[in-house]
Amino acid sequence: MSILAIVFLAITAINIGYYISFFSFSFSKISSDSKLVNIPVSIVICAKNEAENLRDFLPLILSQEYSDFEVILINDASNDETLEVMEDFQAKNEKIKIVNVENNEAFWANKKYALTLGIKKAKHKYLLFTDADCRPESSNWIKEMVLNFAENKSIVLGYGGYFHGKNFLNKLIRFETLLTAIQYFSFARLGNPYMGVGRNLAYTSDEFYAHNGFASHLYIRSGDDDLFVNQAASGSNTAICFSHGSITRSYPKKTFGEWFTQKRRHVSVAKNYKKKDQFLLALFYASQLLFWLSFILVVIFADWKIALCGLAVRLLIQFLVYFGAGKKLNERDIVWIFPFLELFLVSFQLVIFISNLMSKPQHWK
Fold first, then answer.
1. What is residue 196's predicted lDDT score, i.e. its pLDDT?
2. pLDDT in the model for residue 221
3. Nearest 5 degrees, angle CA 21-CA 24-CA 30?
4. Contact between residue 183 and residue 177 where contact means Cβ atoms under 8 Å apart
5. Which of 69-73, 218-222, 277-281, 287-291 bottoms out in mean pLDDT, i.e. has the lowest?
6. Which strands sit side by side in the sheet containing 160-162, from one edge to the other?
7. What's the whole-number mean pLDDT along residues 194-200?
């Protein structure tokens, strides 16, 4: 056997090892040992120029079938009708509290500053976060998310997906979102939670204040969700929630350029994760890229039979992972074309990595 074939098999084994670890989520069952029932909850929504989305989606938050909750609406220095829309809703619903944030020199355009003010306004210990452009999949979203709180569980990671569309970009974005969720849910199941998404995330105010909020990374404009979870989450204090009724969805970017800018920002934040998490994530993405590169080289210069065998085993294990996760998170339509989506995604991520080395990404709003 040639050295090239041996290298290919080693890379394949590393990559397959990751996908086998993802079985921890893909084959898991919904469970909760919580004894906390109907606990009072503060829903925290930070909005910047989101007037139309608030009109569309806030009624679905307010009509949730949950007995005791308030909604903290944060107007993050908007220059559209966001504040007026909030005030209209507040006039009709006593559950709503408004925090109006104006830009200042110290915290210019900093979402973390706005969120901190909103959290301080909340009267309840249990905080549930989503974005103004997100729609809960069911009227039981609050109930199903907070059901995962327990005496020893102060952080709950949920799934924030995207509305389904028929074009390729929509499927690619949803595939990347699915793969990310598979990773952070699986790592959390294995005792190493490292991130969450602000579109669907919950934690207690006690946890927030115990870690001085966003103070350690306030200078980084992005990362109010994943950097906080990376800092505060542990194998013992974190739960995951993936029931169908707990999912939120929003509209994905409409152009490759918009998505490219968004992902550059997200990738740049990951360099502030714990070193262990940086290594594990970097090794996974490297094994993805190197698998395809070494596969091509083995087919051309070594033994194509070995290459095809490695590919077949990898595809089978990947299919099991994506099918299980896709079924759980209502993303089954993209499972059947995952090899093509993966090739595009790996190439896309390489371009992002190179771009971030050459220049800093533009930050959020």
1. 96
2. 77
3. 165
4. no
5. 218-222
6. 135-136, 248-250, 160-162
7. 96
Evaluate whether 73 touches 99 at the Cβ level (below 8 Å). yes
Token reading at 153: 């569980």
pLDDT for 270 equals 87
User: If you count them, how many residues does the chain have?
Assistant: 365
Band (pLDDT 50/70/90 cuts) for residue 58 is: very high
Which is nearest to 161 in space by CA: 179, 147, 139, 142?
A: 179
Closest CA to 46 of 15, 8, 74: 74
No. of H helices and E strands in the chain? 13, 10
Cα distance between residue 265 and residue 275, in whole Å? 19
Distances from the Cα of 295 to the Cα of 179, 304, 316, angstroms: 22, 9, 16
Distance between terminal CA atoms of the chain? 54
Q: Are the CB atoms for 350 and 286 separated by under 8 Å? A: no
Structure tokens at 234: 């542990």
How sure is the predictor about 32, in pLDDT bands with cuts at 50, 70 and 90? low
Q: Which residues contact 303 (CB under 8 A, 6 or more apart)?
A: 1, 2, 5
Distance CA 289, CA 351 (A): 12
Give the full edge-to-edge strand order of the sheet including 155-157. 96-101, 69-76, 41-47, 126-131, 201-204, 155-157, 238-240
pLDDT at 34 over 70: no
pLDDT tens-place string over residues 64-105:
999 999 999 999 989 999 999 999 999 999 999 999 998 764
Is residue 238 within 8 A of residue 193, CB to CB? The reply is yes
Residue 234 to residues 20, 126, 149, 151, Cα–Cα distance (Å): 22, 18, 14, 14
Q: What CA–CA distance (Å, rounded) separates 281 from 118? A: 32
For the stretch 126-156, pLDDT in tens is 999 999 999 999 999 999 999 999 989 999 9
**Structure token digits, residue 198:** 């602000």
Q: Where are the beta strands (DSSP E) in the chain?
A: 41-47, 69-76, 96-101, 126-131, 135-136, 155-157, 160-162, 201-204, 238-240, 248-250
Instruction: Give, as one character, the DSSP assignment of residue 100.
Output: E
